[in-house]
Amino acid sequence: MGSRQITEKALTMLRSLPRVSLGNIRDNPGYKKNPKRGRGQHGGDKHGAGNKGSGQRQNYMRLGYETGNNPFYLRMPHEHYYKGHHLRRQYPPFSLHELQLIIDKDRLDISKPIDIASIVKSGMYNFTPDEKHFGINLTDVGADCFAAKINIEVQWASEQVIAAIEKMGGVITTAYYDPHSLYLLRDPKKFFESGQSIPRRMIPPPDAIEYYTSAKSRGYLADPEEISKDRLRLAQKYGYELHVLEDDPNYEMLCERKDPRQIFYGLEPGWVINLKDQCILKPKDSELQRFFAS
Amino acid sequence: MATVWRSQSAFARIFAGKSGLILNNTADLGAKLNPASISTLKKHYSNYAHSPFVRKIQEQYEFEIIKNPPEWEYVQRLLPFESIPKITPKAAYPSGWIPQKEEASNLPYFIERNKNQDLSIYLDISYRGMRKISKIKKIEGDIWLMNDDVKDFLKKRYKRYIETRVHELGKFIEVKGDYVNALNEWAYSKGF
User: Fold this and answer.
1) Quick one: B105-190 is in which CATH superfamily?
2) Which segments constitute the Large ribosomal subunit protein uL15/eL18 domain (chain A) (predicted)?
3) Element (H or E) spanning A210, and its range?
4) pLDDT tens track for A237-287
5) If we measure between CA atoms, which residue out of A103, A95, A217 comes closest to residue A163?
6) Interchain contact A276–B (C-beta under 8 A)
7) Apex CA A243: angle with CA A242 and CA A246, to 5°?
8) Residue A112 has pLDDT above 50, yes or no
């Protein structure tokens, strides 16, 4: 029988066979593993669990536990460097390079004062107040390439960062926000939709008061006179010419600051924002006005 | 006192007015109830959602409603972008990032940018930092020609052979080693 005959025979056979479908195929060999423990040859053995102990009984003890001994990792006394780390305020970093990048990409409007709400709005920075994040730590990465004149408000800044921003003729303020106001700044739309009145911003906790009242860190509670003195000191230290704010065409924008009790720019505590009807509800009651003004 | 509470009359007093609540088992313990008094309508007194709406609330505080207020500009500033803002061309980009150029579309191959207008060139670190692979993603057009160009560029710069891998269906090229900065530079120079 020649090969041609075999081919034709195979083809006629194929024609008579049904089409391959889900109904007549089967799994590849070895696709399914039998979940049962066999009792045949080697089946009565230890089944790969070893002899006695944790392996057979599946009681895997926690790391470092020595079945009741004083564990090795607890034997030596140590200095508790990270004591209370879970209670400390954290400031997730955001660099000057990233700030310049979002300015280049038109995600940030520098003709308006910048605060944490506008930086979060850009989509390039996020933080979680419930993880003890208290806002932006502006870091000096990219301080050399930074070239924008801005009025920025962050929660933490080093001296180099302050110098880099003031060198370009900008203004920087460090301001404290309590976690509740940070939630509002993170997603203002969600808050406005909830129909609640804008709350007051709380004052900083005792251990943060020194930072936010000092002119060196450009604290929002610092004396403006002291700040202008320190601006000159920093300009002399880093060797750049200080821009005169009063002569600047954007003087009004550069001098715009929030009230220590204010959360959003231009919106006062106590107001209710109605996004649907585009109107603002301002409290008329003297009792409420006194409460929100305090 | 306890004995008084356990008495049948006291039990009935607790459920007074809530006949619908009394279970079949407990009904005969208290006062006798005719079947008509047990309503089939369920009332979940513990569920807040089923409680009736509060009507006629007395307005406690007065608010001044201002339509089209001048402060609305501040509100709009806070609202999120509806779409990713378009990038206006600028004289200089101090951050080192460059937008995609028109001339890039004339080449036989093309690298698409991602939604943040960044180059789709990434570094993949695996095996505890032992293996580093630079990956160029979203390649359109003649991928093999691009592979030759990339290899040529890297060979000229580092003066040695650099291994690459082309995945035509996946539209990516993998370069063995950390060459992300060099590849970014190459892509920017081509206008991608």
Assistant:
1) SUI1-like domain (3.30.780.10)
2) 94-173
3) helix A206-213
4) 999 999 999 999 999 999 999 999 999 999 999 999 999 999 999 999 888
5) A217
6) no
7) 130
8) yes
Place of tokens 């991608």: B192
Q: Residue B30's pLDDT is what?
A: 45
Contact, B154 vs B173, CB < 8 A? no
Beta bridge partners of residue B173, listed in sequence order = B136, B166
Range with the lowest mean pLDDT among A27-31, A86-90, A244-248, B35-39?
B35-39
- Nearest CA to A144 out of A110, A113, A168 is that of A168
User: How, if at all, do strands A93-95 and A137-139 pair?
Assistant: parallel
Identify the pLDDT of residue B3.
42
Phi and psi dihedrals of B126, rounded to 5?
-140, 175
Contact criterion met (CB < 8 Å) for B73 and A273: no
Q: Which run of H or E residues covers position B165?
A: strand B164-167
Q: Where are the beta strands (DSSP E) in B40-129?
A: 63-67, 109-111, 121-126
CA of B71: which chain A residue's CA is closest?
A266
Give the DSSP letter string of A17-80. SPPP-TTS--PPTTSS---SPP-STTTTS-TTS-SSHHHHHT-PPPTT--TTS--HHHHS----
Every domain of chain B and the residues it spans = 2-50, 105-190
Burial of A158 (0-12, 13-18, 19+ CB in 10 A): middle
Asked if A287's CB is within 8 angstroms of B95's CB, the reply is no
Beta bridge partners of A264: A267
Q: Find the residue in A nearest to B90 (Cα).
A: A104
Q: Nearest by CB to A284, which of B63, B78, B86? A: B63
Question: B126: alpha, beta or left, given left = phi > 0 and alpha = psi -120 to 50?
Answer: beta
* Spans of chain B, pLDDT less than 70: 1-45, 57-59
Structure token pair of residue B173: 């090229």
SS3 per residue for A113-154 = CECHHHHHHCCCCCCCHHHCECCCEEECCCCCCCCCCCEEEE
CA atoms within 13 A on the CB side of B71: 17
Neighbours of A163 (CB within 10 A): 20
Q: pLDDT value at position A51?
A: 84
Between residues A155 and A42, the one the model is more confident about: A155
- Rg over CA atoms, chain B: 37
Phi, psi of A164 (to 5 degrees): -65, -35
Three-state DSSP at A228 gives helix
Q: Which has the closest alpha carbon to A100: A165, A19, A173?
A: A165
